[in-house]
Amino acid sequence: MNNYTFIDGSVTAPMGFTANGVCAGVKAATNATQAVAANEPLLPKSGKRDLAIIYCERPCTAAAIFTKNAVKSDTIYVTQEHLQNGVAQAVIVNSGNANACNPDGMDKANAMCRLAAEALQLDENNIIVASTGVIGQALPIEPIAKGVDALKDILSKDGGTNAAEAIMTTDTVKKEWAVQLTLDGKTVTIGGIAKGSGMIHINMGTTLSFVTTDAAISSEMLRAALLEAADVSYNMVSVDGDMSTNDTLAIMASGMAGNTPIITQNEDYKAFVAALTAAFKNVAKKLASDGEGATKLVIAKVNGAKDNLTAKTIAKSVICSSLVKAAMFGADANCGRILCAIGYSGAEVNVKAIDVSYRSSKGEIMVCQNGCGLAFDEDKAKEILLEKEIDILITLGDGNAYAEAYGCDLTYDYVKINGDYRT
Amino acid sequence: MNNYTFIDGSVTAPMGFTANGVCAGVKAATNATQAVAANEPLLPKSGKRDLAIIYCERPCTAAAIFTKNAVKSDTIYVTQEHLQNGVAQAVIVNSGNANACNPDGMDKANAMCRLAAEALQLDENNIIVASTGVIGQALPIEPIAKGVDALKDILSKDGGTNAAEAIMTTDTVKKEWAVQLTLDGKTVTIGGIAKGSGMIHINMGTTLSFVTTDAAISSEMLRAALLEAADVSYNMVSVDGDMSTNDTLAIMASGMAGNTPIITQNEDYKAFVAALTAAFKNVAKKLASDGEGATKLVIAKVNGAKDNLTAKTIAKSVICSSLVKAAMFGADANCGRILCAIGYSGAEVNVKAIDVSYRSSKGEIMVCQNGCGLAFDEDKAKEILLEKEIDILITLGDGNAYAEAYGCDLTYDYVKINGDYRT
After folding, report:
1. A298 near B CB under 8 A
2. Which residues in chain A are contacts of B322 at CB distance < 8 A?
3. Beta-ladder partners of A178
């Protein structure tokens, strides 16, 4: 059925794309009273990479979806405008400063596009811009100017991984991937990078994520594919229930694979979406397991729901519960908190038909049957829950719909990281 | 305007009421494989009080409101049935076991009522029953039988405070209060006890709370008063966003104050509600500041909203944000997280008109003006946020509506307490 294969690679895997990331000093300048250390290094000897460009040698069809938060970074408004014609050729993105809730946010977002357009000799309207980091502090533009100047000369096929690094904030691991499939007899590659790892909640393409492909596909179909794939992946991840102001999930397609352009939701479209979905689900798991302070990945899998919406609603409610998350941290096979979270989800459900089990590589144990707590082997349960990847299996007796949601445990380190994020 | 006065006292302050609490050994028996240590002491030398009775010497008008969680303790169904006629004469309540998600939950809830009815020589239908504690483990009835037997002989005016202690779970302080007002020339007293302190979320009379009064007032007016007072107090508290399966807020009125019975929403009703509301708001603050692991009380105060619903929605969203809560723990005057939480609240709001300040006994500092972050004195902000009671002041430019919501910080101890609640 699935004809895709994951390969090593990043956002530069598809034909036509190059990228790189440098340490421009955005974060240092954001925190300094007077912006910009004049001799901030552009390689990460003394700091983290914080500025990336992804570039395509030809104009791409493009689409993006964004946070639903009413408070948005101005970068989002700028990118929305630039994508109205469905064309883009480059992404410029910084970490260390979200450029949100700033009086001059729009100017700065436009300045980033202008800098990238000048350096890459592109139309400013063909630039996608994004930022991530601290909210409400002025974005220092000088380090970005210097960073762009350095980046324009080092964009390369190898640079994708640096770009992945440059968008990290509190992430502890880079998120990059590539997948290949055959469409119309041609090898098509899709690649991507993404960042976590806090302020992540179920609703739209959580976090920043940039995707490239050499498929020939219209911007309308790209947008439809993003929505479809995100719906069961990014839209099912929660770290802390806080929805970001900056979420952007953007895709550019160079068309260089030479397949017959996808302009309807045909079989090729479906194959493309299947590959994209598989990749996004992997990213969703990585985002969750690298959630701020997380020690384990927790997946709520809901079976037997009367419809998809019910299955999703319940899976999300369970994965978002602070009490469930804390119990997972403590490897406590509490069933009451699962039932409680199902109960307040708002979904209509026959409580007396709910079964709950925990599963990991160490085995599976049922803790609730027909809506009632079971006596179970606590030692066995502990052994199962001490693993790094836990499935919470919820079976409803109401139908055949299925959904899964991705989350993590709530730990001391989450509190520590977020107790003083800005310093 | 307000003619009420807080006095020392508890649920036994109003005329007609006695109470007490003992250590029946419910929790120990819940955790033991074989229930009930035969010689479990009934005074708390070796454990916590976990069983209480509140009794009135005459039948009372009564009302209650309950959790909206679809997964409910069977105690709630039993109490709902018993209150259909608007009459009650006693409350029996245990901590240590929630009697929720158990196959025999209904039998046990009825058994508790029967035990209390027999001991107090009342009609079983006049008993309000409630439980709190671990979900999904069988409620041991023998310790409750022994506890009731002990309680029936020690119900007293002084026993209210023991009852308050007996309903505590992870609470670190007892919640009890009494307030007096003059109605119709008569002194009317209202008293109450409540418990926190986790699985507390905005929706209905969070947690267990029992209220008594000697006012003469119909059960319909009691119910209306509960809903009205809870709406701006219990319904505006969040500790962790998890809504309990057992929430019960019940009130009994003995009528012994001799005021003209309140049977419509007249001036006396309004005075009664004002006193009840003031008391509930105090409890709400106590619940929040004694939230699991909490080190400080945080109150989100929203001014200038276009209507009450908008003000409430925003206040709740801010107080529920894990990132805001963690920032309060770290005394970090982050404005981005406040704006972010306003943005995803779902409320319609003019982002460019939002001001945000932090206030405590050490002063006040503005961190956001017109939707944009401000530069501010970090040392001063730290000093303000290191206090034990913090106001987050949010001013919208959209109207005159006001709301406040009560919460706490998110701390290492929350994670610790909930990482292994059952042991």
Report:
1. no
2. 240-242, 322, 414, 418
3. A7, A191
Q: CATH 3.10.20.340: does it fit domain B297-419?
A: yes
CA distance B220 to chain A (A): 27
**Which residue of A lies nearest to B67 if distances are taken between CA atoms?**
A344
- Segment A87-110 shows an average pLDDT of 96
Q: CB contacts < 8 Å between A and B, how many? A: 225
Residue A275 confidence (pLDDT) above 90: yes
| Span A391-406, average pLDDT | 95
Record the tokens describing residue A145, joined without a space: 């100017």
Flag whether residue B240 sits within 8 Å of chain A, measured between CB atoms.
Answer: yes
A423 touches chain B (CB under 8 A): yes
Query: Which pLDDT does position B277 carry in this prediction?
Result: 97
Please identify every residue of A annotated as catalytic.
206
What would the mean pLDDT of B11-30 be, rounded to a whole number? 93
Domain boundaries, given as residue ranges, for chain B: 4-289, 297-419
Contacts with A, B 207-236, CB within 8 Å: none
Using alpha carbons, select from A205, A214, A220, A215 the residue that is nearest to residue A277: A205
B62 touches chain A (CB under 8 A): no
Q: Is B366 in a helix, a strand, or coil?
A: strand
- Closest-approach residue (CA) in chain B for A377: B33
* Interchain CB contact of B351 with A (< 8 Å): yes
Structure tokens at B408: 């706490």
Choose among B200, B301, B215: nearest CA to B249: B200
Q: Are B87 and B61 in contact (CB under 8 A)?
A: yes
Shortest Cα distance, chain B CAs vs residue A161, angstroms: 29
- Contact of B335 with chain A, judged by CB distance below 8 Å, is answered with yes
Cβ(B134)–Cβ(B140) under 8 Å?
A: no
- Spatial contact of B201 and B295, defined as CB atoms under 8 Å apart: no
Q: What CATH fold (topology level) applies to the domain B4-289?
A: L-amino peptidase D-ALA esterase/amidase (3.60.70)
Interface mutation target, options A418, A420, A421, A422, chain B, most CBs of B under 10 Å? A418
- Class in CATH terms, A4-288: alpha beta
Question: What's the average model confidence in pLDDT over A113-130?
Answer: 98
Instruction: Look over chain B and give the mean of its residue pLDDT values, rounded to a whole number.
Output: 91
Which residues from chain B sit within 8 angstroms of residue A414, using beta carbons? 322, 326, 415
Token pair listed for A271:
């194959």
As a whole number, mean pLDDT of residues A163-170 equals 92
- Structure confidence at residue B37 as a pLDDT band (50, 70, 90): very low
pTM for the model: 0.83
* pLDDT score for B45: 54
**Residues of B designated catalytic:** 206
Q: What is the pLDDT of residue A291?
A: 80
- What average pLDDT does the segment A249-271 reach? 97
Span A323-336, mean pLDDT?
Answer: 90
Residue B238's pLDDT is 83
Q: B182: pLDDT confidence band, cut at 50, 70 and 90?
A: very high
Chain B contact set for A136 (CB, 8 A): 334-336, 339, 367-368, 372-374
**First vs last C-alpha separation in chain A:** 50
Q: Tell me what the mean pLDDT of segment B224-248 comes to.
A: 87
Mean pLDDT of chain A: 91
- Is B379 in the A-facing interface, judged by CB distances under 8 Å? no
Q: Do residues B13 and B160 make contact, with C-beta atoms less than 8 angstroms apart? A: yes
Flag whether the ipTM exceeds 0.85: no
Looking at the complex, report in whole angstroms how far the Cα of residue A383 sits from the nearest Cα belonging to chain B. 14
- A363 in contact with B at a CB cutoff of 8 Å? no
C-alpha span between B99 and B82 (Å, rounded): 18
Could you tell me which residues come within 8 angstroms of residue B152 by beta carbon, excluding any fewer than 6 positions away? B53, B119, B120
> Are B337 and B321 contacting, i.e. CB atoms less than 8 angstroms apart?
yes
Distance from CA of A18 to the nearest CA of B (A): 33
Q: Which residues contact B60 (CB under 8 A, 6 or more apart)?
A: B16, B87, B88, B89, B212, B252, B253, B254, B255
The reported pLDDT for the residue numbered B43 is 58
